[in-house]
Amino acid sequence: MTVYSARIGDIIIGGGSDELEALALGSCVAVVIYDEVIQIGAMAHILLPEQLNTDKTNALGKYANTAIPETIRVILNKGASRDRLKAKIAGGARMFELTGTTALTLDVGARNVQKVKELLRAENIPIISEDVGQNYGRTIKFSINTFMLNIKLGLKKITRQI
């Protein structure tokens, strides 16, 4: 078993007994796309909903609008079948209290979740489970051989599986 860690902007892939993790998700969203039949999974650690015109880094995993298509491409290239793809998502927290008319604009977590859901829906990939929003960070680990997403909530000693 190997544990692969996704930092911000990373897209990682594993199979069999491997685990995919993302540490300290705040407003970022981790998207796991997997194929149960061939036991393969990929994870993107997404920072923002859309690529900014000023960002020329070409980090495809950093933005939802580039990370979702790239994650799908990567997993399909490893033998997954498009009609068997499923997803789990976590993160998208509101890390700071926001008020007033700019609250939604500044709520990056909510915007990330909204964009990820929109893109997965457009790709006909069902979201099997999610743990999103709220006001706390998460550390997650996806076990490919069980397809369970283990979530540790912020600084609390609370964990759950989805």
Task: Describe the overall structure.
It is a single chain. By secondary structure, the chain is of the alpha+beta class. It has a single domain (3-152), classed as 60s Ribosomal Protein L30, Chain: A. Helices cover 20% and strands 35% of the residues. It contains 3 helices and 10 strands, in the order E-E-E-E-E-H-E-H-H-E-E-E-E. The strands form 2 sheets. A 5-stranded mixed sheet has the order 1-3-8-9-10, with no helix packed on it. Strands 2-5-4-6-7 form a 5-stranded mixed sheet, covered by helices on one side. A hairpin with a 5-residue loop joins strand 9 (148-153) and strand 10 (159-161). The protein is globular, with a radius of gyration of 15 Å. The two termini are 21 Å apart. The mean pLDDT is 90.
Largest pleated sheet: 5 strands, mixed
Strand content is: 25-35%
CATH topology annotation: 60s Ribosomal Protein L30, Chain: A
Q: Numbering strands along the chain, what is their spatial order in the largest sheet?
A: 1-3-8-9-10
Gross morphology: globular
Helix-strand sequence? EEEEEHEHHEEEE
**What is the radius of gyration computed over CA atoms, rounded to a whole number of angstroms?**
15 Å
Proportion of helical residues: 10-25%
Q: Do you know the CATH architecture?
A: 2-Layer Sandwich
